[in-house]
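fwd from M.: "can u put these together and see what the complex looks like"

so here's what she sent:
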Amino acid sequence: MTTAAAPVIAGLDGLLLSMADDEFVIGFSDSEWTGIAPMLEEDVAMSSLSQDELGHASALYALLAEVSGTDADALAFDREPADYRHARLLDQGRGDWAMTIARRYLYETSDAVRLEALAGGSWRPLAELTGKLQREERYHTMHIDAWFQRLARADGEPRERLLAALESLGPDAGTVFTPLPEEPALIAAGVLARPMAALERDWRSRMAASFANLDLPALPATADPARGRSDHGDAFTWLHGEFTMVRRSDAGATW
Amino acid sequence: MKGDGHGGSGPELEAWEVFRQEKEGDPMRHGGSVMAPDADLATHYAREMYGRRQESVRLWIVRRADIVDLEDPDLLQPPLDRSFKKPGGYVMREKLAAAREAAGQEKPKARAR
């Protein structure tokens, strides 16, 4: 961990919070498959992938704690649901298997584009962490590509469920790219290579190619794009209750 | 990612045997098996089951149906006495020691593991 004082880069805390909350929420949500996944190997795989996401969240919260002079656990667990800044794409629970796969596909492909724009950035701790995340995400990409294609190419129920999931997720699909507060400052400082709007365009053209290849309908535009990381709704309030339950049962407890 | 099974190769699960290497230079040892519909997911699951805690440096994942299996006792344990095939009276260790002594050489140290 860096020992130099963290620089004051406007917008850095907002960037780190959005990334940490994304990884934390999807990690926790998908970990709900543990014990009930469709087959044994997937139970292990999905649990392992979820643990990876929680590990990524932990590393990001730790960087944010450094930058903002707070505590990583407090950041992760002690906020009200309205104060979380994850993408609206991740608000719902895990749903059925097709919903989990569809959502992971949309999220992982978005995250890959985001990480590319952060790689080699000017603030070394984040640039180094980005490099490590990209290496681990290769493994996530292998898994989600295999499953997304399996469901899309299978006739009957698997494909139908995938289509239903994509229709439900469509209006929120692009919310990972919600413009960040003080984004121009992040770009000027060399932390973020390009604006979120440009990253979203790239992502959408990649999705267009991949979806056309699998004969899937094109993704719609994001609904209410300015609130892509707020107004999380009841489903997230429930999820928040789940993942803060232990912490709230004995505030201040240590292991 | 190598493998012929790139999604959609059917709903059936097949058994894949997994061989793992603990560290560089070790032989591949059978670890167990996973069920998967194709090579890509078989590889993913093999990594989960036999490599997620960094316990292996290499994995071989083989479709069980592709393994040529031999257990015919007529071939492997034929009934007639063939002990002449084992050179039991020719102890290598003794012969080597004698050859070294004749040549005035030291026995080399054991290779580090």
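replying to her w this: Chain A touches chain B through 18 residues (CB under 8 Å).
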